[in-house]
Design a protein that fits this description.
2 copies of one chain form a homodimer. By secondary structure, chain A is mainly alpha-helical. Chain A has a single domain, classed as Orthogonal Bundle (Arc Repressor Mutant, subunit A). Helices cover 63% and strands 8% of the residues of chain A. Chain A is built from 7 helices and 3 strands. Chain A has a 3-stranded antiparallel sheet with strand order 1-3-2. The longest helix of chain A has 21 residues. At the A-B interface, α1, α2, α6 and α7 of A face α1, α2, α6 and α7 of B. Chain A binds a DNA duplex (30 and 30 nucleotides) through α1, α2 and α4. Chains A, B: One of its GO terms (biological process) is response to stress.
Chain lengths: 147, 147
DNA sequence: GGCTATTAAATTGTATACAATCTATTTGCT
DNA sequence: AGCAAATAGATTGTATACAATTTAATAGCC
């Protein structure tokens, strides 16, 4: 590719990923609205539905988000009555996030979302999985870089 | 995939794309900082370097961004002296964005960025292009959906 | 021509993201 | 024990994103 082509927006992998991410989020929006959640709040709960009781630090590692994003987000979910934030007695530096009854129950209603989305988007589960694996590979590659 | 697996974060295509997008942007950050640009400002200029003089509307279609995001961003780039915002005489509803001398010149320095990135990330141009094509396909699919 | 619908930007309000910094706690070392 | 370095969250400041609404201008229709 010549020097001019590499600067073309349509040739840039990063832009494709960036635009795709935002369009995907828009697709989630109406479905999540029914649950009263934003996308970031939703993926935070996904992690907790898999494994309840987790430090902010570990949550951040799973979501690739730092405390600057998570702290206000978790405070909001706490105010909504979906989780609790409690200092770890063993290590007072950490804060343990745990689902409330209500937060745990919300999982039932969230189950339908992934399927609805695939149907809407017309993406087959097989090709979705193939693409997800490739993107995850790249994510690991990009994330591991020494800054 | 069973009902529980679809809710697992690591199985979700959307999350992979979302996390990858943010990690990619972080990779750009130090390189763009040298030019005094953010990622969104950079891709806006990419479009204008390809085709100068364009309405906010058209710019938004290329970038998948709306006026709510673009208006403040373009005002900032205007203040930085990189572009001008002028009402279209033919259609006073539109605003035409045009590069200044300085904005056009910045392209020279931006040329190096894509190559530096690929080297850093250890992604071969060939696999990047293959992945970009797949993601763009999905983007089109997701974006065309009737809301 | 005159009125309604549509369109393009701008504005408003809410929710992220993240770099950089700060605070409190704990670890590791002597 | 005592202290420097490291760690986990919280805070601050800046820059997006985007839904929803508003404003101004144009297009379409009678």
């Amino acid at each position: 590719m010549d020097t001019d082509s590499v600067l073309k927006l349509d040739n840039q992998l990063c832009f494709a990923v960036y635009a795709c991410s935002r369009e995907f989020t828009k697709l989630y929006h109406p479905l999540l609205k029914e649950l009263g959640l934003t996308y970031t709040q939703y993926i935070t709960l996904l992690v907790l539905w898999e494994e309840d009781r987790m430090s902010v630090k570990k949550l951040g590692e799973r979501l690739y988000l730092d405390s600057g994003t998570l702290t206000p987000l978790l405070k909001k979910l706490e105010n909504m009555g979906l989780l609790t934030r409690v200092r770890d007695k063993q290590d007072e530096r950490s804060v343990i996030i745990a689902l409330t009854e209500q937060g745990a129950r919300l999982k039932e209603r969230a189950i339908e979302i992934p399927e609805k989305l695939f149907c809407q988007a017309g993406i087959s589960p097989k090709e979705a999985e193939a693409l997800r694996a490739q993107i995850t590979d790249m994510l690991k590659k990009v994330q591991k870089l020494p800054l």
